[in-house]
Each structure stands twice: as structure tokens, then as C-alpha cells.
Amino acid sequence: SMKTLIIIPSRMSATRLPNKPLLEINGLSIISHVFKKAESANIREVVVAAEDQEIIDDVKNNGGNGILTSKNHKTGTDRIHEALSILGRNDIDLVMNVQGDEPEIDINDIKNLNDKMKTNNSKIGTLAAKISNSTTYENANVVKVRIKESFEQNLFPLADNFMRKTKEKKNIFHHVGVYCYEVETLKRYISLNQSKNELENRLEQLRALDNDININVALANKSPIGVDTEEDYLAIKKI
What we know:
Largest sheet: 9 strands, mixed
Helix content: 25-40%
Strand content: 15-25%
Structural class: alpha/beta
Low-confidence stretches: none
Number of strands: 11
Radius of gyration: 17 Å
Number of helices: 8
Oligomer: single chain
Mean pLDDT: 93
Order of helices and strands: EEEHEHEHEHEEEEHHHEH
Distance between the termini: 37 Å
């Protein structure tokens, strides 16, 4: 059967919230909350990939596995690929990228994406959530995905495009930045140059679409709350 490895990229140098991964919620760092949640999905193994030794130490102190990666990565995908290379494993079929700053991620969404990747033999899969607030469409900080068929027609439709702002609403969802890659596709993807669309929109997933690599989309139960600002951090502590 196909084997999935979950890799969680994390880094200290977030501009808006310094030392973000190590900020504590109920006495446990954000990054350790995320890896413990990912482990509870029981998909298999979970590894944190970070460029900072402090993150690795924290993860290991909390019973997790961490890999120190280079500081020179352009994207999180490059970091994930390096971690996979360092592990030197040949028994992995799928790599799941779970964001290190979303402690509220829904375990069932991760499981669902993993299952759909396996049954569909997809190259890349990701998640999207319904948009409930109409201001979201014009908010450039919330990435959107347009799907080719509605979720009523297809539970794992192809992504048609990703955008930061849109006037359209049909088949548009809030993109949730969890990715699952077939290993060979991940290797091909990181060997490709950054595309014009990718650089203009600051969305690395456009590199896949620009190179005719399909991305399938599964419907998430909800949009996870990322911790990007002091306000987010205080709000999530309350939850």
C-alpha cells in the first residue's frame, strides 16, 4: 500500500510575529501543537523541517522528529524536498505538507486528502474551504482557488486557477495551504524554474499549473486559523 510522510515546514523569521513557532499555547509551542495534531491523524510518520536549531530542539523535547534544513530556500516546497532528501527514504510514495503555523488544522481534512490522493492516483492534491464572508473575495491576503467542476459533481475536482483577488464567485473557494505530492512530481516541481505567474502573484502553486501539472482539490471542513499576527495568537489562545 502507498506510504505517506507528513513534513511540516517551519521557520523563525516570520516578519509580522517574531519567534512565531515557539510561542506557547497552553504551555506547548505552536509548532509542537501542529506536529502532535498531525501525528494524531495516524497517517504514518511526521517530520518537522526547519532552518532554526531552536525549532528542532523544541520538537525533539516534545517527542517529535525534526530535520535541520538550509536557510536559502525560496519556497516551503524546496524545504520539504531537502528534508525528504536528507531522510534518504525510498519507501515513500506521497509527501504531505502541513503548515507549521495552523494549530487548528482539522485532522479529518488531512485524512481525507490522503485518502483521495491514493484512490485517484493524483500528482498534487490540496484543500479548499467554503467562503462565508463576502469581503474574502477581494482580500489579497486570502488565497482563492477556482475549481473546474463543483464539489457536487466531483469530490476531488481539478484546480482551474489560484488568485489573490477575484470578482467572480462561482466555484471559488478559500485555498487552504496543505499539499500532498506524489514523490516524483515533487522532484519534478522543484527542478522547474519559478514561473512568471508564480512570481507576479506570489503563489508558488501556479508553477505547477503553468507546467501542466494537475492539482486536485478536496473540500475542507473549515478554514483553519493561521497565526500570523499578535491578534491571531491571542485569539487562538482563547480557543
